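Fold it.
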Amino acid sequence: MELPGADLHSKGIAMHKSIRCTLGACVVAALSVPSMAAAMDAGQSSASSQENSATNIRMNAMQQQIDALQKQLDAMRAAQAASNLAANKTPLSSAPVTARDAAKTSVAKVKPKQQAEKSDEGIHIGGAMRFQYSYEDYNRGNVQRKGDADFDIFRLNMRGKVDDIELQAEWRWFQYMSAIKFAWLGYDFSKTSQLQVGITRIPFGNQPYDSHSYFFSSNYYLGLEDTYHAGAEYVYAGDPWNVQLAFFKNDAMGGVDGYVSNRSNSYSYNVVGVRQPGDGIFDNPSHPIGSANTSAARVAYTFKPGDVKLELGASALYGSLESPAASVGNYHAYALHMNADYKRWNVQAQASRYHYQVDGGADRLAVGAYAFYDSIPARADTYTFNVKYHQPVQWGPIHSLDFYNDYSLVTHKSGLLPSTFMNDLGVGVSAGDLYTYFDFLTARNQPFVGGSMAGDGAVEHRVNVNFGFYF
């Protein structure tokens, strides 16, 4: 196959030769002029000074032509050298990727030599660094200090495709732990269908998030939003249907007897034990269990009447609960969900129910995430309703504002545990690669807002500012 630069290279050689020939002719002509002038002086001594002056003018004109041709030759040599250099360069390209929290990156990819002609292949590297400020009215020391500023996370993302195999992965570092969020390999059967194998998202509810804020919805703390397990998932993303079918062997920590030192060092909320009467809400689990052999399905249909884009869907999952030695029960969950866009507005709604059935009965289960253990009811109903308005602006580096209000309710809990609610009123500010969440939370029995899903506390408030730079 002929490279694009090869044609330019051959033309350069031909022009080079042409210039050399022209230059030689001009030199010969220039050298012959003085000899002719001498012969004329010897045979025609009566020639006037005007003729000598005309000869000098012609000689000067020839010299100028020679100089011009020499400049053209030098320019052609420089262009030929630049063409050769360009033909031998290693290809480099950049590809910006935009996503909410999971993968907003500006990345560079380097393609191996044998893949240089496949411009869409390569591995992209990106990430983020985030900090936050919080004012918590349930924390006396925090109130006295007028809030606290903390480092949030540093994360690295990898994404791309090599030899028709796609790779997606994200690793996160906190001050108190490090954890993998997801890591999977994918193969595209067509433009609309893909198989993913590895640690991938459970297809359940509104996707990719049932929320707009930094804190997600209450479903996240129950393992029903943005939760990742180890298994395989088939995705059909056509129009108007979206179908996801998955099977997960266990959670991303390796299950109940995974090779990890602490099962709470997890991004996703996983069930890790059974709470017995008398166990504390935040105790290490004394009766460890884990989910296994979970089947999940999500089906959604999108309507597009006029300026409205409306997705309606249903989700369900079913799996077993395992102790280190035997099966101890099963669990299931299902949901109906809606996600609508109208011009700059987005509205989400979801109704869900889950139930962990443990042999011998249990009203509470232990969950682990973010380097601590918590508790959830074994059974509950959940509801979410979220609204967002997107406003483009031109305020220096700020180019858009996202105003939102996310509401969650967890009720009908097992063991007559009190309900949980969380309302998050906030705005997201986008300025180039910097995105900042400003959240005002009002909640009761909500993790990270002074409570627990298995608690019985008062209404609490939190002001939170989280800003991150994505690269």
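The chain has three helices and 21 strands.
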